[in-house]
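Q: Hi! New to this. If I give you a protein sequence and the SMILES for zinc ion, can you show me the bound structure?
A: Yes, paste them in.
Q: Okay, here:
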Amino acid sequence: MNATGKLVIAIGALLGAAALSAAVVPGVPVLYYARFSVLTPPGPVEPPPEAFRLIPRLIQARHKVAKGEDIRSIAAAYGTDIRSLQSTNSNEFIFISRGGYIRVYNGKGLLYEVTAKGETLDGLARRYCGKGRDLKGFKVQIVEDNDLPPSALLVGHKFAKGDRVYLPSVYIDLDTYRMPLRTFGRISSRFGMRYHPILKRKIFHNGCDIPMPIGTPVYPSRSGTVVFAGWKGGYGNTVEVKHKDGSMCRYGHLSAVNVKVGDTVQKSRSLLGKVGSTGMSTGPHLHFEIITAAGKSVNPMAKIGKK
Ligand SMILES: [Zn+2]
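A: Thanks. Here is the predicted structure of the protein with zinc ion bound:
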């Protein structure tokens, strides 16, 4: 906050909220936004960051990213934290592009959007309660924080599709493995011992093979830094991405490589390359391998959705 902002807050404390709101947003008093809630669709008049910090009620908006902003400064401006914005937008925000939109709100935790019919308070509370948290207390907190009628605790409260529900202190860990292809049909060769079709002998397969047409885009299973991009013997064109915890993913037999060593790549979003049949391969497929920080190959399929 700049000096003027500090002064405005100080004057506001002396004169009350009405004077403050007029001072901060000329023309539109901050209290105007008090009628907004997380259930109100964002816009057309977006509440300014000040409103988010000053109005105790939960409000949301779509924030257009301006030059020089990053996820840290946006979280601070709206009175929330980075993890809340990451969870709510289902995006680690390793990259944030100017002009792009992110959903902002003034809670700490997940602003959950009901995407299916028939989701209940009970179901949501159970799903997001987490170990060590009292389920009953969590439900009471959801009802209070979301202004639901107290009867919601007694009758099976159902949410409508599109409802937004604030789940206090719930954070989604996005740094987990995910499938490196947006669509896929089957696994042609699993992790483990197999008869090698070219070497004609039993050999350990340290990854899994996913057949897909040549040119199918390959995305990082997990965010990280590219540590290898190029030709790697039997693997053909290969990309290796190292993650924060020292583990690594290998993507082999690519027809095209779209990254270079040193690039930062975000899970499911950065294009690594395209499926091919380069190196020791009998047909177009992706060889996908996960190597732990200790250097051990593990079954990738057992890691999806986990760390
Ligand atoms: Zn393979």
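A: The pocket of zinc ion is lined by residues 189, 205, 207, 209, 287 (CB under 6 Å). Let me know if you'd like me to explain how to read the tokens.
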